[in-house]
From TrEMBL:
<keyword id="KW-0812">Transmembrane</keyword>
<dbReference type="Pfam" id="PF06522">
    <property type="entry name" value="B12D"/>
</dbReference>
<dbReference type="InterPro" id="IPR010530">
    <property type="entry name" value="B12D"/>
</dbReference>
<keyword id="KW-0472">Membrane</keyword>
<keyword id="KW-1133">Transmembrane helix</keyword>
<feature type="transmembrane region" description="Helical">
    <location>
        <begin position="15"/>
        <end position="34"/>
    </location>
</feature>
<protein>
    <submittedName>
        <fullName>NADH dehydrogenase [ubiquinone] 1 alpha subcomplex subunit 4-like 2</fullName>
    </submittedName>
</protein>
<keyword id="KW-0830">Ubiquinone</keyword>
């Protein structure tokens, strides 16, 4: 399969940027999914910690980008479970 891919690239050099950006997008998608799967709000073992999101502090920045929210000054609202 790699032989066929290399032959197509030699015949059509305009495909090189397309292959590059497809691989870059697939790699970025994989890394983002890996980041989501490793987050503190995800539970893989329900017997040891069934609700890990209850142990997050109110100042934990769980969003990827927070433009208008200052997580340092947030106070916890609600009871501890």
């Amino acid at each position: 399969m790699l032989q066929k891919l290399r032959d197509q690239i030699k015949k059509h050099p305009g495909l090189i940027p397309q292959f590059f950006f497809i691989c870059l997008g697939m790699g970025g998608a994989f890394l983002y999914l890996f980041r989501l799967a490793r987050g503190p709000h995800v539970t893989w073992n329900k017997s040891s910690n069934p609700e890990p999101w209850n142990q997050l502090s109110p100042s934990y920045q769980y969003k990827f980008v927070a433009i208008n929210t200052d997580y340092e000054n947030l106070k916890k609202e609600g009871p501890d479970f």
